[in-house]
Amino acid sequence: MKITREEVRNVARLARLDLSADEEAAFAADLDQILTYVEMLDELDTGAVEPTAHVVELETPYRDDEVTNQPDADTLLAGAPARDGTHLKVPKIIE
After folding, report:
1. Res. 59 pLDDT band, cuts 50 70 90
2. Which residue from 1, 3, 75, 90 has the highest number of Cβ atoms inside 10 Å of its Cβ?
3. Nearest 5°: phi and psi at 77?
4. What whole-number distance in Å separates Cα of residue 54 and Cα of residue 63?
């Protein structure tokens, strides 16, 4: 067994988990199976494989930065209590 119950107990303590003895044994067995499976990857010859961040080519889509919904000032200011042309009128707060 590659993962001991003591190692599982230590990780559980770090994660503040209170595991029973049965749970420790189950986690040790599960983690051992996971590591055994991962070790199979060591058998693969990856010498000719270039390092990559993604397995498929990703393209960043670009588009022109154009306004497609031009705002209409009269529509936007229709509900304003007071306005001066295309500007809102607000009370003076600084004397």
Report:
1. confident
2. 3
3. -95, 5
4. 23
| Helix (H) or strand (E) segment spanning residue 3 | none
DSSP 16: T
> Across all residues in the chain, what is the average pLDDT?
88
Contact residues for 51 (Cβ-Cβ < 8 A; gap 6+): none
Residue 27, token pair as written in the block: 């986690």
Backbone angles phi, psi at 25, to 5 degrees: -65, -40
Query: DSSP code of 7?
Result: H
The reported pTM is 0.47
**Amino acid at residue number 56:** V
Domains annotated for the chain, with CATH where assigned, are: 5-43 (1.10.20)
Task: Mark residue 85 as left, alpha or beta (left: phi above 0; alpha: psi -120 to 50; beta: remaining).
Answer: left
CA distances from 23 to 3, 19, 38 (A): 14, 6, 22
